[in-house]
Amino acid sequence: MHKDQIISQLIQEKIITISPDKPFTYASGMLSPIYTDLRLTVSYPELRDMIASDLANLIAKEFPEATIVGGVATAGIPHAALVAEKLHLPMIYVRPKPKDHGKGRQIEGRFSENDKIVLIDDLITTGGSVLNAVKATEKDGGHVAGVSSIFTYYLPDAKETLKRQM
Known about the structure:
alpha/beta, two-stranded antiparallel sheet, pyrimidine biosynthesis, PRTase_dom, glycosyltransferase, EC 2.4.2.10
């Protein structure tokens, strides 16, 4: 595992920003002095490879039954692609809502009801985005075996919500 190296590079590249005097507003509306912009990780090949390797190892260990890797749009998609490649598994991705044009899909890629899907998001704060993706996947007949992220704030409410809903 590359945990210490990943954390060090996240700080060094200012992917993690700390601003106690001017807190950041998260998508959930929550205010925090810490902002983690994991979308930037795709710009650093060594960092994204360490992240993908660690996620792949985690998924292989915790979800050995996984047959598909899914990315939660948008920031989870590149990481899911890299992990799927490392695990030699198919990949799908899940949008927050169905498209309003074309075929109107919310999920891109193919899966069957027998597949065991592990969804990857870049960050879990409240769990809302990943739960939305779980619900959409299950609504389309998929079975979500688990979820993973690069980073989480370990908020008690998020852990409880995920436990309750999954």
